[in-house]
From TrEMBL, chain A:
It comes from Sinosporangium album. Belongs to the binding-protein-dependent transport system permease family. The chain crosses the membrane at residues 36-62, 95-118, 130-151, 163-186, 207-232, 268-286. The keyword Transmembrane helix applies. The keyword Cytoplasm does not apply. The lineage of its organism: Bacteria, Bacillati, Actinomycetota, Actinomycetes, Streptosporangiales. GO terms for biological process: transmembrane transport. Gene3D superfamilies: MetI-like. This is Multiple sugar transport system permease protein. Residues 95-286 form the ABC transmembrane type-1 domain.
TrEMBL record, chain B:
PANTHER family: BLL4140 PROTEIN, DIACETYLCHITOBIOSE UPTAKE SYSTEM PERMEASE PROTEIN DASB. This is N,N'-diacetylchitobiose transport system permease protein. Belongs to the binding-protein-dependent transport system permease family. The keyword Zinc does not apply.
Length: 300, 316
């Protein structure tokens, strides 16, 4: 394992190249040209199929309210009103809740994961393995199965229907990924570098902040963005722990557009576009590095 | 504080160190926990306590009447579990959950692996486009992804009915058709992880190995099964187990697309069933019991995961 897949599978590097995203395809003289065409065609087709829902989402969001029943594929005019509705309706407030929850969980994870990841990467101590395994197990768990217990706990502390409960749960359930990926980054930075900086008179904290942390920055950013996205997308915990519409994050608020018999598609999709675009952009920045964190350890 | 960096001895188990400096030894044993304390302070109340509470509530008769204080909370032992195991609904939901997850794992892996191979062979533009599509599906909130697919298959307005020229066919009426559409949505959300991971794995296989296979006249199919799969076996094991865990946890897609479990609950999976029992019918004790069963199943899968990690030579 460690010899075959390891070196390049997004094993975090302290410096220089991290991924091989731009790698050229291997020359393959054996395959006839026709196969290349088929492969390219199937890639285009699959990409189209997978991107298609987004096209539908955006086009529907831009469709005038009275045109939904029409059998045309494109709207006659672009109705931006669905998007402006978003800002004038209460949804802007829900977006604000989502932002606060995502940012809050991210900060919480950063504060908590950094010291743990750093120490477990640099030192060997009794209980280290146990700690890392417990953290790994929490990644496999999910709030959904424990929902009654979580609800009961926040009920006892009077935190139902507050953003604090959402920040805590999202932070807690994303901690494992952050600890593991940061641990991998810190381990990949030679301790000699840090020691050299220390000897050069930077002091222990200076060495940490001027050498180690900057080198681990890609890992830190990956952990942060990943947590942010996960908290942004979260649905079931927010559905359970928030009761008043103005305290709901966007994902839950959008669900209220889906009625038993009727769905307000245009406004739903305008909101969905606004809920989706930021996370896709953020994710594009970290995609390659995420794999290392999710297959925690297997790629070390 | 400075010793940590200066002395390589610090790397050793502090307990085994020579008995000269007693106070240092105590400090050395305690120091890790200064760093780990914040993490423990978050994990303990967010995992330990809810799990304890879940277990506790599952052996109590705990419903709306008890929550509002109308009736006293009473200990009923394993009666909630007995109710569940005696209920046909529970078994059919459990079977559906397992079957649904199994099909999803296979489908996700097939799609992901096929596209990973396509990625390695496609030119620059199609590869970028495919990566973009994968990223968009991966990052999207499962809530918004579910609604688009719902719309595509809507009986009156959906594009699928328009293109197929069938009017008013309700795709969310039949149990299996509904599971199929929800499953497609889940695969759409989860294939990118498999694709990107395996693509990275294939990229890491030395080029000369694949060239040798090609020179020996191996077809793409043979190369995949005889070269790539054996070489990536450890990685594939991890991806499979991750997929099992993810597909077992499905909630949002079912909840949103089938309006909370489908007609007469025909599309329930354990997660949604637990949620509906606890928060829909206010049977908190019973819902907790389902949660406990779910947690135990996930725990077993997780143990397999950790074992696979150890097998793959991972030093934790």
């Amino acid at each position: 394992m460690t010899t075959t897949t390891t070196p390049t599978v997004s094993r975090p590097r302290a410096s220089g190249q991290v991924s091989r995203h731009g790698g050229r395809p291997r020359p393959n003289r054996v395959l006839p040209k026709i196969k290349t065409v088929i492969i390219a065609a199937s890639a285009y087709l699959v990409a189209f199929i997978f991107l298609f829902p987004y096209l539908v989402m955006i086009l529907t969001a831009l469709r005038p309210q009275d045109e939904l029943q029409d059998a045309t594929y494109l709207p006659s005019t672009f109705a931006w009103s669905n998007f402006t509705n978003f800002w004038t309706s209460g949804l802007a407030g829900n977006l604000w809740v989502t932002l606060q929850v995502a940012a809050g969980s991210t900060i919480l994870v950063l504060i908590v994961a950094l010291p743990a990841a750093y120490y477990t990467a640099r030192h060997n101590f009794r209980g280290r393995t146990a700690f890392l395994i417990v953290v790994l197990i929490t990644q496999m768990f999910q709030p959904t199965a424990m929902l009654v217990g979580i609800y009961r706990e926040f009920y006892q502390f009077g935190l139902i229907d507050t953003i604090w409960s959402l920040i805590l749960v999202n932070g807690g359930f994303n901690l494992a990924f952050a600890v593991w990926i940061l641990n991998a980054y810190f381990s990949s930075i030679p301790r000699e570098l840090e020691e050299a900086a220390f000897i050069d008179g930077n002091g222990r904290w200076g060495a940490l902040f001027r050498v180690t942390l900057p080198l681990a920055l890609p890992g830190v950013i990956t952990a942060l963005i990943f947590t942010f996205i996960a908290a942004w997308n979260e649905f079931v915990v927010a559905l359970t722990l928030t009761t008043s519409p103005e305290n709901q994050p966007l994902t839950v608020a959008l669900n209220s557009f889906i009625g038993q018999y009727e769905v307000d598609w245009q406004n739903l999709f305008a909101g969905s576009v606004i809920a989706t675009i930021p996370v896709i952009i953020l994710f594009a920045l970290i995609e390659r590095k995420v794999v290392g964190g999710l297959t925690a350890g297997s790629i070390k | 504080m400075t010793t940590a960096l200066k002395a390589p001895a610090d790397r050793r188990d502090p307990v085994r160190r020579g008995g000269t400096a007693r106070p240092r030894r105590a400090r050395g044993a305690l120091r890790p926990w200064i760093y780990l304390l914040p993490a423990a302070a978050v994990l303990l109340p967010l995992f330990g306590y809810p799990i304890y509470m879940l277990g506790l509530l599952s052996v109590f008769d705990y419903r709306q009447a008890q929550v509002s204080g109308g009736e006293p909370t009473s200990f009923i032992g394993f009666e909630n579990y007995a109710t569940l195991f005696g209920d046909e609904k529970f078994w059919s939901v459990l079977a559906a959950t397992v079957a649904f997850a199994a099909v999803l794992v296979v489908a996700t892996l097939a799609v992901g692996a096929a596209l990973a191979v396509v990625l390695t062979r496609a030119g620059r533009v199609p590869r970028l486009l495919l990566s973009l599509a994968a990223m968009a599906a991966w990052a999207a909130p499962s809530m918004t992804g579910s609604t688009v697919w719902m719309f595509l298959f809507d009986s009156d307005l959906g594009l699928v009915n328009q293109v197929l020229g069938i009017e008013g066919y309700n795709w969310f009426y039949d149990q299996w058709v509904t599971f199929g559409i929800v499953g497609a949505t889940v695969v759409w959300h989860s294939f990118p992880f498999v694709m990107v991971t395996l693509y990275a794995g294939i990229q890491a296989i030395p080029g000369h190995v694949l060239e040798a296979a090609a020179l020996d006249g191996a077809s793409a199919w043979q190369t995949f099964w005889r070269v790539i799969v054996p070489m990536l076996r450890p990685l594939i094991t991890i991806v499979v187990i991750q997929s099992i865990i993810w597909d077992f946890k499905i909630f949002t897609q079912i909840y949103v697309m089938t309006n909370g479990g489908g007609i007469a609950g025909q599309n329930l999976v354990l997660n949604v069933y637990a949620f509906q029992t606890a928060f829909g019918s206010s049977e908190y004790g019973l819902g907790s019991a389902i949660g406990v069963i779910m947690t135990l199943i996930l725990l077993v899968v997780t143990l397999f995961y950790i074992r696979a990690l150890y097998r793959s030579g991972e030093k934790l």
